[in-house]
């Protein structure tokens, strides 16, 4: 089926709701080595309606990666509630950072005090895959518990134009 609607082949950003904007800015800047491009505030009834809310006030920052932006959002109105998702729960999502060297990425995590969920693995035949051997992955969480992943992709996990 041909894609007749333009624009659904690119992602612009992922939004991550956090408890404390300043703390999360420090985390994501340290993790990515990239500074946020701006910090601002948005809200009011018009914005709230786009999200099914009556009113909203959101403090936010934008972080521009090479191929995706991260919107870091602290909801002031209504106050955010803590959610916790494991990767196997329906509607859980995660953000995956692509790296060239999984070991260097693990060192970076250690430098900023992040413990991964487990040691990284490199996909092998016994993992049940038909392809993608040599791809390395590990999972970790941000300070608010957001599921994050690191991948050093091979085979079909590697994007064609990268």
From TrEMBL:
What PANTHER family does the entry give?
METHYLMALONYL-COA EPIMERASE, METHYLMALONYL-COA EPIMERASE, MITOCHONDRIAL
Q: Does the keyword Repeat apply?
A: no
Any one GO molecular-function label of the UniProt entry = methylmalonyl-CoA epimerase activity
Keyword line: Metal-binding
Q: Which InterPro entries match?
A: Glyas_Bleomycin-R_OHBP_Dase, Glyas_Fos-R_dOase_dom, MMCE/EMCE_epimerase, VOC_core
- Family annotation (SUPFAM superfamilies): Glyoxalase/Bleomycin resistance protein/Dihydroxybiphenyl dioxygenase
Query: Does Calcium count among this protein's keywords?
Result: no
Name of the protein this chain belongs to: Methylmalonyl-CoA epimerase
Q: Name one GO biological process term.
A: L-methylmalonyl-CoA metabolic process
Domain VOC: from-to ranges: 10-153
């Amino acid at each position: 089926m041909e894609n007749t609607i333009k624009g659904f082949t690119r992602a612009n950003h992922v939004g991550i709701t956090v408890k404390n904007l300043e703390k999360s800015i420090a985390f994501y800047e340290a993790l990515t080595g990239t500074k946020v491009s701006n910090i601002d505030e948005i809200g009011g009834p018009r914005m709230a309606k786009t999200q099914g809310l009556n009113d909203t006030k959101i403090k936010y920052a934008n972080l521009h990666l090479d191929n995706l932006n991260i919107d870091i959002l602290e909801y002031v109105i209504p106050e955010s509630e803590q959610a916790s998702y494991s990767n196997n729960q329906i509607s859980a999502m995660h953000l995956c950072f692509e790296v060239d060297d999984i070991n260097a990425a693990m060192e970076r995590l250690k430098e900023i005090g992040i413990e991964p969920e487990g040691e990284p693995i490199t996909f092998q035949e016994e993992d049940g895959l038909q392809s993608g051997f040599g791809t390395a992955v590990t999972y970790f969480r941000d300070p608010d518990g957001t599921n994050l992943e690191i991948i050093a992709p091979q085979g079909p996990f590697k994007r064609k134009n990268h």
